[in-house]
Design brief:
By secondary structure, the protein is α+β, with helices and mostly antiparallel strands. It has helices at 4-7, 11-23, 32-39, 54-64, 113-118, 145-151, 160-166, 169-181, 187-196, 205-216, 221-231, 233-237, 239-242, 258-270, 276-284, 289-292, 305-319, 326-337, 340-346, 351-361, 365-374, 381-405, 416-423, 429-443, 451-464, and strands at 26-30, 45-51, 72-74, 79-84, 87-93, 128-130, 139-140, 153-154, 184-185, 249-250, 253-254, 294-296, 299-301. The chain has 25 helices and 13 strands. Helix 24 packs across helix 25 (451-464). The longest helix is centred in the C-terminal third of the chain and has 25 residues, at 381-405. The structure holds cytidine-5'-triphosphate (CTP). Cytidine-5'-triphosphate binds at residues 31-32, 45, 47, 99-101, 120-121, 125, 167, 169-170, 173.
Amino acid sequence: MTDLKAHISGVVYDLIASEATKLGIQAYVIGGYVRDIFLERKNTDIDVVCIGDGIELAKNVAKQLNPKPKVSVYKTFGTAHFKWKDQDIEFVGARKESYQRHSRKPDVEIGTLEDDQNRRDFTINAMGIALNENNTGTLLDPFNGLQDLDAKIIRTPLDPDITFSDDPLRMIRAIRFATQLNFRIEETTYKGLIRNIERIHIVSQERITDELQKIIASPRPSYGFKLLYNTGLLQIIFPELCALQGVEIINNFKHKDNFYHTLQVLDNLAAVSDNIWLRWSAILHDIGKDSTKRLTESGWTFHSHEVVGSKMVKPIFKRMRLPLDHKMKYVRKLVYLHLRPISLAQDRVTDSGIRRLLYEAGEELDDLLILCRADITSKNEAKVKKYLSNFQHVEDRCKEVDEKDRLRNWQPPISGECIMDAFAIGPSKEVGLLKKAIREAILDGEIQNNYDEAYSFMLNEAQKLGLSQKSRL
Ligand code: CTP
């Protein structure tokens, strides 16, 4: 039996209780914090619902604390908030209509505790713990949320048509909680969700993306993506990914289902890395396969899908309101390079191939190798084993060449300025050509990675271009 009193003990809770009594109102901790007590998850966001004026209660409690926290008041929404130690405490008056933490809906109608619980998203999120002097620590669980927690079930407290139409984001939240907690969505709720999917169109992209990020950050994100796909939501919010679904067989030529393959890669990767952007690169690594698919005499090909895919990253990030800074560039680079280590493993592993990979991947080499490892999926275990061992060879060689040549974040020994100075020329095509020739010669192992060899190589190449060295006075 969980000792609820232990979870609501301390100076703040005592003050809430005594100040609420003075004001003649009742107060309850409600929602995620209560759910997480039973799940034994740390939660520092505490929502306090008051049957009365939440703002006044917050101010009175804050006044008694030492040091006195700064109270932020949102009058239109009837809420007040302050930070106490590591906790964020929000006070809100009980409402008759749908509760959303960041709702922009003003003029909420005051309700009872029951009204407030009715208008929450799921039974597991509708439990309250009384904070009043006469009933401290009593659990108020009108929809058997505790039972649903035990049975690992996501269920709406009211008819799902009402709960989901109050705030259609809750359809994705249902899938998010199911994925995070490894719960099942109860049948009536699931059917209601499917009936309401079209209403997701009225939800802002930022809120959708927030939930999607939480699905992606879960231990087994494929579960959430399959739910999104099976309900029809993914087709609305992420059509490019859905386009990868399906297997086509023509003239006995068959290709794998790239949607389910992608989800497998995502799970493989999630098992070894929490890096959300690396997880995004798993989601997008084959995104170019739909538009590059061709049937040739020897079977299906997806030629240049990594190039096409990398070009799709920015528009997808833009639409999803994901950051367009270095995080997007990182994902784009990994999508672009994702075939390289594998194709190296299939061909003969040459030093120059490895050098090129080190140079192009730079800082991202380790993450690229993690992605490529996750990308090795096949039903044929012997095949996977063989690929993995070839791949191990590439990884070992990368390490060796990296230690020897230090090509990550490498700059060739001759700069553009140096070339311009040597031939007394300004910025021009020739400078670019020479720079490239020097870089390639070093990567191919034709010359060593040092100034002297690069300089005499440059003089030779310049002659071919008809450039003569500046006369020295
Ligand atoms: N809530 C709701 N409908 C929403 C969003 C929130 O009913 N669309 C209610 C739920 O009771 C929820 C509470 O508001 O428990 C707090 O929501 P939120 O801030 O999203 O946090 P948690 O439920 O705690 O989940 P998490 O912290 O994992 O986001």
